Amino acid sequence: MQPPTSPIIVKVVEPPVRGLGLGDTILNAVGLTGALAIGALVLGLVLAGIVILFRRAQSRRMSEEAAAQTQSLGLTPPAHQ
Predict the structure, then answer these.
(1) What is the pTM of this model?
(2) pLDDT category of residue 61 using cuts at 50, 70 and 90
(3) Most buried residue, 52, 64, 73, 76, by most Cβ within 10 Å?
(4) Angle at CA 49, nearest 5°, toward 46 and 60?
(5) Least confident among 12-16, 23-27, 33-37, 71-75
(6) How far is CA 62 from CA 58, 66, 68, 76, in A?
């Protein structure tokens, strides 16, 4: 006969879960806000470039006759001579 064996108990210890603290939350929010701000800045610059190029091309296409049909609003003061 075999003597009674005692059971082997294995305890699995999981590593502690690191929660998001206030500093981590603020850092994540600033990172997201910064990314959105940079994206908006780049998009604004691209759209401004497109508008400027379009207006330059449009003014080049305007013929002298079309330019003669436009009327100045007189918003700029006359140049001193």
Answers:
(1) 0.50
(2) confident
(3) 52
(4) 155
(5) 71-75
(6) 6, 6, 10, 22
Residue 44 has pLDDT above 90, yes or no: yes
CA distance 40 to 51: 16
How many Å apart are CA 7 and CA 3, to the nearest integer?
Answer: 13
The residue type of 66 is: A
Residue with tokens 């436009």: 70
Cβ neighbors of 28 (< 8 A, separation 6 or more) are: 20
Distances (CA, A) of 20 to 17, 24, 29, 68: 10, 6, 12, 68
Residue 6 has pLDDT above 80, yes or no: yes
E strand or H helix that includes residue 38: helix 22-61
